[in-house]
Amino acid sequence: MGRYFAIRIGRAALTIVLVVTFAFVVLRLSGDPALMILGPEAPPEVLAAFRKAWGLDDPIWFQYLDYFGAIAKGELGRSMRDGRPAMELVLERIPATLALTLPAFVFKVALGIPAGIYAALHRGSAIDRAVMMTAVAGFTVPSFVLALLLVLIFAVQLGWLPSGGQDSWRHAILPIATLSLGGAAVLARFTRSAMLEVLGQPYIRTASAKGVPWRKVVTSHALPNAAIPTVTILGFMIGSLIAGAVVVESVFAWPGVGRLLVVAVANRDLAVVQCILLLVALTMVTSNLVVDFLYGFLDPRLRAKGAHA
Amino acid sequence: MTPLISIQGLSVAFGGVPVLRGVDLALGKGEALGLVGESGSGKSVTWLAALGLLPRHADVSGSVRLDGRELLLAPASELDKVRGGRIAMIFQDPASALNPVLTIRKQLCEALALHRDLSGEAVKAEALRLLNLVGIPDAARRLSAYPHEFSGGQVQRIMIAMALAGNPDLLIADEPTTALDATIQAQILELLSTIRREMNMAMVLISHDLGVVAENCDRVAVMYAGRIVEQAPANQLFADPVHPYAQGLIGALPPLDGPHRRLTAIPGAVPDPAHMPGGCAFAPRCALATEPCGLAAPTLAPIADDRTVACIRAEASRRALLGIAAE
C-alpha cells in the first residue's frame, strides 16, 4: 500500500515539474516582456536595462536553474509591472475566484448527479431525453457563449441582474450560473452513462433476484459502483476550482485569478503567470491524488491491487 | 396435486420480436426439472420473465402461478417476497453475479434480513452456517472478504448459499456450471443435488449440457425457438426421444459404451426470432417434415403418462425411431 502511494506521489511531483518547465520555456519563447511592458517606443538602453534587471539577458538554461533555485527557497519572483511579490498578487485574487467556483461546484453536483441518476433510471423516457438534450447543449455551448446569452437575457433584456463587476452578491449570480450549467451538464452525462453501465451488470440482476426492493438495489448496489467513475470527473472539477473560471471571469469582469492570468499573459508578466500555473498544477495534481486514494476506498479490487503494486 | 409453480402460455417479445412463444410448464414440490435447448431457445428468459427480472421494455404475457397465486400481475412488493424467499435463482457467470464493492457478509446478510426473521448475531451465525453448508473453508474469516478474493467455483458456492438464505421452495439454476472447469462443475452439481435432497427443494436446472441434466433431474423439458417441444421423465427422454429435435440432440451425444458410431448433427441453424417460419419452427431442419408441418405450429400434446410432445408427426417419428415401418 505504501509503495502504491509513493509511486503516485512521485508521479505527481514529476507532473508539476513538467508543467512549470513547459510554462517557463513557452513564455520566454513567445515574446519579450520588456517590449510588452515598456512598449515598442521605449529607448533601447531602457529596454536593455529592464532585461538586465530581471535577468532576461541571461541564457535560458541559466534563468531556468535560477528560477528553480528560487522556488526551492520559497521565492516565486516579483511582478514585472509593479514589483510586488507574484504570490501575493495571486493569493489576494483567490477569494474572488473561489466565491464563484465553490458555489458553482456545489450547484454542479447538486444538479448534475441527481439528473444523471434520474435519467439513467428512466432511460428512454421523455425526462431522460430532455435531460440529455439539455446536457448536450450545456456540453457543447462554449462558456463564453452561454455567458453572453445569460447577459443578454437577464441583464440586457430583463434588467434583473448586472452584467459585470463585483459590487454585490447579485453580480455573482450570472457567473456562477454560467459555470454551474456547463459543469452540471458534463456531470449529468457522465453519471448517466456510469449508472447505465452499472445497471446492466449481472450483480444488479442478482440483487433483484434475491428480493431486494428496486429502490434499495439502486441505492446500495448500483450507486456505490457508479460512484467509482464519477469520482474521476469530480476530482477534475475540484482541481479546476482555482483556474476554471478564466473565460467566465473575463466576460463578467470579475477580478479573480483567471482574469489576473489573462492580463499577466498578455503582458508577459512572467513571474505572475508562472506562479498561477504552479498553483493550478498543484491543485490539479493534489485533487488527482485524492481521487487515487478515493478509488482505493471505493473499490476493494483496487485496494487489493495496490497492496501488491 | 396442485403443482408448486405452473406456467401457461408464457410469451415474451423484445421490441415486437418474439423470443418466447407460449411456454407451458409445471413443477411439483421437490421436483428437479431439466430445461435443455440451444442458446437463444428461451430457457433463461422463461424464468427471468416468471420472476419479473426482464428489462422493462420486454413484453410479457401469459400466466405464472405460484401455489395458485398469479405472479405476472403481482405488485412489486409481493414479487420481492417471492424472489429469494420462495424462488431463488443462481446464474451462469458467478464472477460478475456478486456485487464487487460489497463484502460477502453484507450480501449474504442482506438476503437473510429480507426473508428471515433474524436479527443481530443470529444473522451472522446463519450466514456462517450457510457458508459452511456450501463448503467455503475458513468461513468465519472469509465473511469479510470481497467477491474478487474467491475463485470462480467458490463464488458459485457463495451464490448458492445466498440463494438458500430465504429457504426457497424452488431454485432456478441458470447454467450454474457453464463458466467453471470440469472438476469444479461436478462438485457444484453434487452440492446442488445434496442440498436439494436435504431441503426438499424443487429445482430447475437450465443447461445446454444433456449429460448434466440426465444425471441431476427427474424430468426434462426440451426447448426450441421459444417453445417447449418435448417433456418427459429423464430416463424415458434419453432412452426414447420422440420429437425429431430431441432425437437430434440425443443423437449428437457420444455413447459411453457400446460400439463407436458416427455422431449425427442437426442440419441447418436455429431460425432467427424475427423471421420465424410459419408452422413448426423446426420443420426447415427436420428430416421427417412433410407439407402439413409448415402450416400450423403443433401444440404440446400428451403421448403417454407424463409425456408431452409438440409434433404432428409424433406417432410417425416414434415409429421411425423404433424401426417400425409406417403403414
Automatic annotation (TrEMBL), chain A:
Residues covered by the ABC transmembrane type-1 domain: 94-295
Predominant location category: membrane
Domain of life the protein comes from: Bacteria
Annotated GO CC locations: plasma membrane
GO molecular function annotations of the record: dipeptide transmembrane transporter activity
Gene3D superfamilies for the chain: MetI-like
InterPro entries in UniProt: BPD_transp_1_N, MetI-like, MetI-like_sf
Transmembrane segments: 12-31, 94-121, 133-160, 172-190, 226-251, 271-295
Membrane topology: Multi-pass membrane protein
Keywords: Cell membrane, Membrane, Transmembrane, Transmembrane helix, Transport
Location(s), subcellular: Cell membrane
Family listed: Belongs to the binding-protein-dependent transport system permease family.
UniProt name for this protein: ABC transporter permease
Source species: Bradyrhizobium zhengyangense
Automatic annotation (TrEMBL), chain B:
All copies of domain ABC transporter, residue ranges: 5-250
Database matches in Pfam families: ABC_tran, oligo_HPY
Alphabetically ordered keywords of this record: ATP-binding, Cell membrane, Membrane, Nucleotide-binding, Transport
Coiled-coil ranges from the UniProt annotation: none
Any one GO biological process: peptide transport
GO CC, alphabetical: plasma membrane
InterPro entries to which the protein is assigned, alphabetical: AAA+_ATPase (IPR003593), ABC_Ni/Peptide_Import (IPR050388), ABC_transporter-like_ATP-bd (IPR003439), Oligopep_ABC_C (IPR013563), P-loop_NTPase (IPR027417)
Gene Ontology molecular function, alphabetical: ATP binding; ATP hydrolysis activity
Cellular location(s): Cell inner membrane
Bilayer topology term: Peripheral membrane protein
Summary of the function given for this chain in its UniProt record: Involved in beta-(1-->2)glucan export. Transmembrane domains (TMD) form a pore in the inner membrane and the ATP-binding domain (NBD) is responsible for energy generation.
Entry protein name: ABC transporter ATP-binding protein
Naturally occurring in which organism (per UniProt): Bradyrhizobium zhengyangense
Lineage: Bacteria, Pseudomonadati, Pseudomonadota, Alphaproteobacteria, Hyphomicrobiales
